[in-house]
Design a protein that fits this description.
27% strand; alpha+beta; 19% helix
Length: 102
């Protein structure tokens, strides 16, 4: 089984406003992008389970000319709450690195 970190040159996460997080998947080339961009491991159900989100609210954007998939999901609580542990959501991508794609 191929894992996400094996076919991406970079994976990052960041805020997409105070209520959403975006994960950017930069595939290591157009071949792996074409092979895995629609993989079950990157489906709304799998991503929602990893982040505790509603699958109906997970959004996916494929950027073919860049070999990038962007996945956005709503934060559990707005950015900047009293118990915030990752204010900029810069560490959230780690949950997907070992996701099996095939």
């Amino acid at each position: 089984m191929v894992k996400l970190h094996e076919v991406c040159r970079q994976v990052r996460s960041k805020n997409a406003g105070p209520f959403w997080v975006t994960v950017d998947l930069f595939f290591d080339g157009p071949e792996n992008y074409a092979r895995y961009r629609d993989a079950f491991g990157l489906s709304a159900d799998v991503v929602a389970k990893a982040f505790g989100a509603d699958p109906a609210l997970v959004k996916r954007f494929a950027v073919d000319y860049l070999s990038v998939v962007k996945i956005s999901y709503p934060r559990k609580a707005p950015q900047g709450g009293a118990v915030e542990r990752d204010m900029h959501s810069g560490q959230q991508y780690v949950r997907l690195l070992d996701t099996e794609l095939s």
